[in-house]
Amino acid sequence: MTGWRFWAATLAAVLGIGATFALGMWQLGRAHQKEALADAVSTQKRLTPLSQAEFLSGERHSAVYRPVLLRGRWVAEHTVFLDNRQMGGKVGFYVVTPLKLSGSDAAVLVQRGWAPRNFVQREQLPVIETPAGEVEVTGRIAPPPAKLYEFGPAGAGPIRQNLDLTPFAAETRLKLLQDVSVQQTGPASQGLQRDWPEAGAGRGPETNYGYAFQWWALCGLIAILYVWFQFIQPRRQARQV
To answer: What is the DSSP letter of 119?
Structure first.
């Protein structure tokens, strides 16, 4: 029983049990992270809207997903159409425009909404309305727009796959806040839909709990098979002899 095969099987079992147990714990941690994120988002959404003064004072850093009320002027010439974005199961553009904040030289990138794409004339931009003059924008503080995989170099036209705020600020010569953006909320208007997905939307924590159970079940199976083939079965065979 103490030959090389026994020790090889023991090593394989230890590695298998350790790996599957660790993977189960990792999935459990992912589930807890998703639950914590959902709780944080829910808490922020229930708070009163952050004022523009509070937003500019730096409180925005700890207020992601909190409602905010801003006033300013659209810098329409720097509107960007982020490609391959989905809303309601359809693929189109996220339309983003810098908002020059009133009473300040700062600007913030506003994710104004989603617009459909013309897949026949792919360079044609959707028709959207961008009011002139001072506007009031109701939204929620959000991270900068998520990045998708890009096959080629970053574009520089109105249609882009991704938008990095640091070079975009240099390109536009705006004092653009680079740590956050704002997702405009409210009913559809100006040719834009605003049914934004919730933060962390997708597979919920239940999926990770299921994966954790599967890994731990495999962990237990490895342990049972090891004990059976290395201890129980050899003893039963020895008794029969």
So the answer is: S
Residue 30's contacts (CB-CB under 8 Å, 6 or more residues apart) are: 205, 208
Kind and range of the H or E run holding 222? helix 205-227
Q: How far apart are CA 87 and CA 91, in angstroms?
A: 7
Beta bridge partners of 95: 81, 113
Residues 95-143 pLDDT 10s: 999 999 999 999 999 999 999 999 888 889 999 999 999 999 999 999 9
pLDDT on residue 237:
82
Can you name the residues that pair with 134 across neighbouring β-strands?
73
Instruction: Map tokens 């919730």 to a residue.
Output: 198
CATH of domain 48-184: 2.40.50
Cα gap 82→158, rounded to integer Å: 8
Helix (H) or strand (E) holding 23: helix 4-45
Please give the C-alpha separations between residue 198 and each of 37, 65, 194, 204, in angstroms, as whole numbers: 11, 10, 12, 11
Domain ranges of the chain: 4-40+207-240, 48-184
Triad 53, 57, 61: Cα angle to 5°: 115
Give φ, ψ of 71 to 5 degrees. -130, 140
Q: Check: pTM over 0.70? Answer yes or no.
A: yes
